[in-house]
Amino acid sequence: MPTPPIPPRSAFWQLPVASLLQQLKSRPDGLSHAEAAERLAEFGRNVIHGERQRALLVQFLVKFRNPLVIILLIASALSAVTGDVASFFIITVIVVISVTLDFVQEYRAGQAAEQLRQSVAIRGRVLRDGQAVEIPLAELVPGDITLLRAGDLIPCDGRLLEAKDFFVNQSLLTGEPYPVEKTVSEGSSETDILLANNSVLLGTSVISGSAKVLMCRTGQSTTLGDIADTLLAKPPATDFEQGIHRFGLLIMRMTVLLVLFVLLVNAFFHRPWLESFLFAVALAVGLTPELLPMVVSVTLSRGALRMAAHKVIVKRLASIHNLGSMDVFCTDKTGTLTEARIRLERHVAPLGQESQRVLELAYINSSFETGLRSPRMTPFWNTRKLTPAAGKK
User: Fold this and answer.
1) CATH top-level class of 12-46+140-230
2) Residue numbers of the chain with a pLDDT score lower than 70
3) What secondary structure does DSSP assign to 270-338, as a single string?
């Protein structure tokens, strides 16, 4: 069994590197694949948990909190009490189908979104069995040796083993707008990890240079993980959901007031209480729009299906109304909207003619550049082999 990682509150940036490697049972050439698999099973995935998911049954039952649904259920119960089994059965079936449609659509959308996140999962370079390999960041474990360069997201709280012109953007955690230089040292006198220059933190990014980092904390044990709980918040209700809620409360008030009014009038005229009660129940059932939840769910589900045909995933059905209400939609185009794949179309000289020499020089520059990383040219390098004559031009 692997030893536990460095305790979350320990000052790993103050320890000598040799001692740190010994505590983590790691080596400068990295863990083996078997050791990494054992630690992944022991310590879990390197992720910051998002919103805690409730059990599916609880998620389904929450859908019944809609005021309209509550009114319908009460009306169906009263119908059953008074012997009108047909009305009870019809209303109950309509309510259950409506709620089920809403729940199934949101669940399927959530699953699709999760699959999409997995398909674009960020990968990192680590040393396994002494070889540099690329694996998803979620599979990195304490004791791994990760290789960082310009443009990378830092996947852990870790200690620098090697660094060359290494600058990091820590604005996510510190608010500092300027990059901070990180250097290798045997220990730091700083008591705050944010001030230690020999360590890196999850959630920050590499601006320039390269480094080799010993991973000490991952996932929820990181500094970012400590503050993750404070960032979790239930999304606010959409305007559509608020409107439906207000309409449901209006119907509920009207129904209660009219039923009470009918009972009082019948009592004033000394009508039989049983007949008055049955009439009031019939009035309540008649005033309640039984098909409204069904119409809303079916309409929004239809909209979600139409958007899915255009490769748009709708996680919350009610958000479709907000989207349709927009006149102008502004978004910051980031890498999260693309696959980050670049395809070579042409390689031309300054005068515009095709040039194999340009391809060769571009490849050499991309391979040996030490500043901001350029997109790799390997995928098309294999399909456009350089000839010996190309280097003699």
Assistant:
1) mainly beta
2) 1-10, 49-54, 105, 109-121, 227-235, 274, 278, 281-288, 290-291, 294, 331-342, 369-393
3) T--HHHHHHHHHHHHHHHS-TTHHHHHHHHHHHHHHHHHTTT---S-TTHHHHHHT-S-------GGGS
The first and second tokens of residue 42, run together, are 């022991």
pTM beyond 0.70: the answer is no
Of the candidates 31, 51, 29, the one whose C-alpha atom is nearest the C-alpha of residue 43 is 31
Q: Cα–Cα distance between 290 and 55 in angstroms, integer?
A: 28
Which residues of the chain form CATH 2.70.150.10? 12-46+140-230
In the set 84, 152, 226, 332, the catalytic residue is 332
Instruction: Determine phi and psi for 155, rounding to 5 degrees.
Output: -95, 10
Residue 332 among the catalytic residues: yes
In whole angstroms, what separates CA 233 from the centre of its chain?
13
Tell me if residue 177 falls in helix, strand or coil.
coil
Residue-wise pLDDT tens digits, 290-346: 667 767 777 777 777 787 777 777 777 777 777 777 888 776 654 445 554 667 788
pLDDT per residue as tens digits for the range 245-303: 788 788 778 877 877 887 788 778 777 776 777 677 666 666 667 667 767 777 777 77
